[in-house]
Every structure is written in structure tokens, then in C-alpha cells.
Prior knowledge:
Subcellular location: Periplasm
Oligomer: single chain
Organism: Arenicella chitinivorans
Pfam family, one: Alginate_lyase
Radius of gyration: 29 Å
Largest sheet: 12 strands, antiparallel
Structural class: alpha+beta
CATH class of the largest domain: Mainly Beta
Number of helices: 19
Distance between the termini: 83 Å
Main location: periplasm
Number of strands: 27
Keywords: Lyase, Periplasm, Signal
Helix content: 25-40%
Amino acid sequence: xxxxxxxxxxxxxxxxxxxxxxxxxxxxxxxxxxxxxxxxxxxxxxxxxxxxxxxxxxxxxxxxxxxxxxxxxxxxxxxxxxxxxxxxxxxxxxxxxxxxxxxxxxxxxxxxxxxxxxxxxxxxxxxxxxxxxxxxxxxxxxxxxxxxxxxxxxxxxxxxxxxxxxxxxxxxxxxxxxxxxxxxxxxxxxxxxxxxxxxxxxxxxxxxxxxxxxxxxxxxxxxxxxxxxxxxxxxxxxxxxxxxxxxxxxxxxxxxxxxxxxxxxxxxxxxxxxxxxxxxxxxxxxxxxxxxxxxxxxxxxxxxxxxxxxxxxxxxxxxxxxxxxxxxxxxxxxxxxxxxxxxxxxxxxxxxxxxxxxxxxxxxxxxxxxxxxxxxxxxxxxxxxxxxxxxxxxxxxxxxxxxxxxxxxxxxxxxxxxxxxxxxxxxxxxxxxxxxxxxxxxxxxxxxxxxxxxxxxxxxxxxxxxxxxxxxxxxxxxxxxxxxxxxxxxxxxxxxxxxxxxxxxxxxxxxxxxxxxxxxxxxxxxxxxxxxxxxxxxxxxxxxxxxxxxxxxxxxxxxxxxxxxxxxxxxxxxxxxxxxxxxxxxxxxxxxxxxxxxxxxxxxxxxxxxxxxxxxxxxxxxxxxxxxxxxxxxxxxxxxxxxxxxxxxxxxxxxxxxxxxxxxxxxxxxxxxxxxxxxxxxxxxxxxxxxxxxxxxxxxxxxxxxxxxxxxxxxxxxxxxxxxxxxxxxxxxxxxxxx
Length: 739
């Protein structure tokens, strides 16, 4: 096996510690040498008192770990599913072993190493006796846990703990732990489950990281090579292939932000181990720096500290999650980018590792600079040709506006049927929402912590999202394997002063039907906040019912429609594809011209202006039908329905305005500024005109054809217009308003 400079440095550091004296601390050979080196241990021990937050983290960890150690070694026989006692105890054990290992290295107190030893010996006695878990999941069951994914997570943490204490163990103890526990778990995760191990998926990433990190600690190059290049070492699978295939050229992970966050941990920890042991592989440069891009991109995929809740997302996860704490710290050590320190400050979690201490020290020195949350397009797919996620931002700080346009690929089995879907955030809140996942993670009392049945039946269905539903059927008829074969085609994207805009289309979501959506964040004079403009075109060879849902968060305040509401009994909107979960609260005929609905959220008003016509309705729906176990959250939606049409253009504007202060008892700007909205099709061009109460008018002219260099000329209502690229914005003001 190649001996890296980190191994040599570790040996030198061991000699230094031995010469200086370290109490009962024993550093043998090249250990620690996995994700933290002996040199880093020496530096931390000598400098810990100079960085107050790191010293406080050390003191807090000692108190917490000492309390747990007093309870003794608890290694129960596995019986519970996720969230149950034994499941959670085995999770506590791997974290406690890692914490105790760190404390042993930093304090030199042998009792921490002895505790890790005793837990490992208990596992070494238990593991060879275990069959598959009694409550095994249908895919990839484990032994200690209900699925082997958790087993891989356990080994990733446990092998780090072993690396930290192995120098304090006798040869007999090492042989027993390695032969009865560490190698059997690594073999179970690799040769024992080849389909999972070779899978290009976050489960495969965790397994590869666990096996490869074990290989480094046990000095077993065979395990390392299998982890890097797949079981047959051909390179068709394994960690390198996962880096190349799971991230787009922009660092976007195909399953979405929630799973990008989860997948980051094995990527960053194994990459760190590779860098320590085989730096010549330049792992952080692999695939054009994919891992470092993915860390920065994960931060961009958030608003006010929480990840965008698309696909199977549990929506309380954010940038302070432990996976990203490790990711930010490792990325800072590699790049020295001080913007990452801004995120570390917000995370407020000091890691007692070499890279964690580097962050703590840099923060203590005040080296952090503001992180640049910016507007950008994140391409999806290995080649960047599987659609994209567009993020448009306006303003600064935690209460800025953000428009997220989801024109991505399916996202494999965790993806939702929501092509050309969007979300909107403002004032620190999610205003136009995505349901995310229907799951109470690790709450065993709620369906054992599994995804609820309603996750497939409601949360994934198209009507649960802000995009068009044809004939009350989900995109791809609700089959993710079909959806995985098709992604939207991005027609154009731009983020410039005054307007941020993107356009995409897909023709495979429904047979013989094409969906095209153009969305823009448009700044206009006289308005405090930008308008969100939405033009959704549907074209089909035959007539269909078209529904465009809008899932909004807030209390409905006013509307311009004449409602016919249900007074004595409620009925579901439909029978399948998610409609069965929506109560039909009220309906309104949709007259030609402008219709407006306003709601209030956290002291701010939001008005949705849209254009109706004959044979159209607005449906007011509420989630909760056919849900006797109360598994779903209480949420409201508007559904703009076109009863029958071949082709249709939905056009709408969302305006953010005004303020309501209940404490001071005042209201300002509660009325919308939008007084007119119109759309015209002009050959290959689309013209959208917005009129404001102050007399200002804005016209957006755009085309999906050509590129940014194409020259256009058009005779419009305002005269002849010439421009280059996909779009132009024309602004004018009435003479009356000028006076």
C-alpha cells in the first residue's frame, strides 16, 4: 500500500508526543490516520485553550460523554425498526464511540479509549450471532438495523472511533475486534450485498465510504480498491463512479437538496480519508471538483437556513445539519474560502476534528466574510442535460425574496411528479409551497417512521404541486421509472438587472401534450418587491381538462370572485392521483378578465392576479379528505380549472405588498398594485402586459426560439420593437400619472 505524507507526518507526530510525554495517551504507528492525523491532534492539544469556542465544545463534550459512559455499555439485540429503542441505541453507540475516541486523543485519558474498546468487544460478541434484522426493510436489509444503509452509517462512524483508539488496544483485542466485527460488517456491506454496493445511489455511496474507510484503517488495499472502483474493481461502480454520475456539472445532486444533504456525509468523509491516505489521487479535484461544488451548491439550495423542500424532503432540515457541518469544515480546509466561515458561524457547531478546529480558529480570528446567496441555474444530470433548477433572489438577509423554478429530472425513486413546478419564499417564510415528504422520520408511533402511504398517494402526485394537471392524472401516470427517462428542455435562462427569467418545456409528461412554462422575477418602478410572472402554455391534439394548482401559505383575506361554498358537507375533489385527499371547499365561475385573491402571511400581503374566461373555474381546496389517521398537514390550495380545451395559456402575477401590524394595530398597502394583466400570442412571440395602479405599464416580449444572439423585430401594440436574445422588457407611463 502507498504510504502518504500524512502517514509519515503521523509517525513523526507520534514520536514528538512520546518525547514530550502525553500522560496515558498512546499513539501507535500511523494512527490516528483516517479523517484526522496525529499531527492535528498535537496541534489541537497545544492550542485548544486559545480558541474559546473550541475549548467550550471540548468541555461540553466531556460532560455529555461522561454522563453517557456512567450508564455502562449498552449493546442490545436488534429488534426495533427505525425510531425504536434498539435502533436509536445503536445510533447513540456509534456517536458515543466517536466522541469518546476524540476525547481520548485530546485529553489523553485512557478511560475514554477503554470505553470504546468495551463497546467494540460487545459488538464483536454480538455481531457474528445476528441474522438479518427481524423488521428488515424490503430493500437491502441489515443486521444491526432494519436496512443496510444504517449499517453503513454505523461503520463510517465506528471505524473512525476505532482509528482513534487502536493504539491503546492490545494485539489480542485488535485481532478480535477486526476479525469478529469490522471485517464482517465490511464484507456484509460489500460482497454480502453486491447490488446495493455497486449502486449509483446514496445507499451505494454510504456503503463504499464505510468499506473504503475500513480498508484504510485495517491497511487492506483490496477493500479500498473495491470501495473506489466497485466489487470487480472495473470502475463501472464504486466511489469514483458515484462522484462522476451523481452530481451535475454544477454540483446538483439528482435526488434534490434533502438527499444532497444526506449524501454529502459519506462523500466528504471518505474524500477526506482518501486525501489523508492517498493524496496523489487529488480526490477533491475529481470530476471537475464535484465534491466541493456539491457542498457550495447545498448551501445555495436553501432559504433562511432551510433546504428547499422539493422531492421527498422532510422540511425541517437545513444548513445546520451535521452532514453540512462536516462538509463546510472540510471544504474550508481544502479551499480556504472565507465565505464558508459565514455558514459555519450560522451552523454554530464546532467539530473537534482537525478540520473542525481550523474553522473554529478562523472564526475566532474574525476571518469570515458574507456568503454570496445568488441567482443561478443548477443544471441536472451527469452531463448537465437533464433539466435544471433555477434560483432567483432579490434583496439580502434572511428575509429576501427567492423564486425557485423546478425544471429538473425525476430524481429517481425519491422524485415527485411535478415537472415545471415552482416555489416562492419571502420575509423568511415559504409562501408558495411544496408539501415535501409525507413522513414522520424516526417517530415509530407514526407508521414505524416509514414514509407514510400518503407519500406516494398524495405528496408525490402532481396535484400536490404548483404545475398543470391534465385530466386529473399525474405526470407520467405516476410511474417514476417512466419519468426518469424524460427531463424538461431548458429554453433559456437569464439573471440580470430588472429581470430574472427562465423558460422550459416538456412533451413527455402526457401523451400528445406539450407543457411550456416561462417564469420571471420582474422589478418595476414604484413597487417595493419584484413581481413573479408566470406564463404556462398547454398544447394538445385533443381537448382536455386542465388544472393549475397553487399551494399557498397564509390566511385568505379577500378575492374578486363570487364563491359557491360547501355549507353542510364536504366532498373530495376526485378519486385518485391525489385528488381524493382534497376537500372541495368552494367554487367560483371565472369571468373573463382579471381575477385577484389576497392572503396574509406573517404581517405581509400577497396577491395572486390571473386572467380567466368562459368555461373556467377557480376551486378552493383543503387537504384532509380520506385521511382518517390525520397523517397529512392542514393546507389550502387554489386550483384554476379549464374544463375543456385543446390549447390554453395560463397567465398570472404574484405580488408581495403592504404590512399588517397587529401589535401596533395598523395596516398599510393591503391593496394590490396590479390593475391589468393580458397575454397575446404573436406568431412565435408571446406578449404579456402588466398595468399598475400608478399608471406604469410593463410589457414582456419573449420567444422560446433562437438563442441569446438571435436578432428579433416585431410590430407590437407599442410600435416596432427590435432586440437581441430571447426577451425584452418595455416600460412606459401614462400621461395622467406623469402629471
